[in-house]
Amino acid sequence: MEKIFYADKTEYSSVLALKKILSEYYGIENATILRTEHGKPYMENGPYFSVTHTKNRMYIIVAEQPIGIDSESRSRLPFYETIVNKFSEDEQREIQSPQEFLKHWIAKESAIKFLGSTLALDLKNFTYVDGKLTYKNEVFPAQLSFLTHEDYLLCICGANFYENVEFIAI
User: Fold this and answer.
1) Which of 140, 163, 165, 169 has the largest CB neighbor count within 10 A?
2) What backbone torsions phi and psi does residue 106 show, to the nearest 5 degrees?
3) Strands (DSSP E) along 48-164, which ranges?
4) Phi/psi at 17 (nearest 5 deg)?
């Protein structure tokens, strides 16, 4: 069973939370967190991980393979009409409510984190239509798993489908 760690983001920085998780759950003491040229945090020779922040919450997932996670508060009602024009026409037809927009958004953002890219570089390269994710018009070679936890909707992008997860407060 996969673990997703969470905390109030006023209590921990991402780095402190990650170091606590790596130490307490994976036996990795004094982890050195590096950043790619696009700012994605990583560890040399360490496990893969991904971090997401939303509202007052932070979620972190650790895996043996590349992973991406994103989340949004389900109570958030974004004014999505200004952003949805950056999505494909097919996506725009599917997105008819703030909740549908959030699902498309976290699907794309988790995949972008999976790649280690940025929204600026890759938002337009992804489409999420009829539950299928494509990248530059090719089927994206990863699975999307949508989960809810309390008031939050999460999407995990990884090699596996994540259905049974354990949420652990840190």
Assistant:
1) 140
2) -70, -30
3) 48-54, 57-63, 67-73, 126-129, 132-135, 138-139, 143-149, 152-158
4) -65, -45
Q: How far is residue 88's CA from residue 110's CA, in Å, rounded to a whole number? A: 18
User: Would you state the structure tokens that stand for residue 147, as one six-digit string?
Assistant: 């989960």
Helix, strand, coil proportions of the chain in percent (round to 5)? 30, 35, 35
Structure tokens at 91: 């996506």
On whether the CB atoms of residues 111 and 140 are closer than 8 A, the answer is yes
pLDDT over 70, % of the chain: 100
Instruction: For residue 48, give every residue at least 6 positions away whose Cβ sits within 8 Å of its Cβ, in sequence order, or none.
Output: 42, 62, 63, 64, 65, 66, 67
With vertex at residue 117, the alpha carbon angle to CA 111 and CA 119, rounded to the nearest 5 degrees, is: 80
Question: DSSP letter at 81?
Answer: G
pTM, to two decimals: 0.94
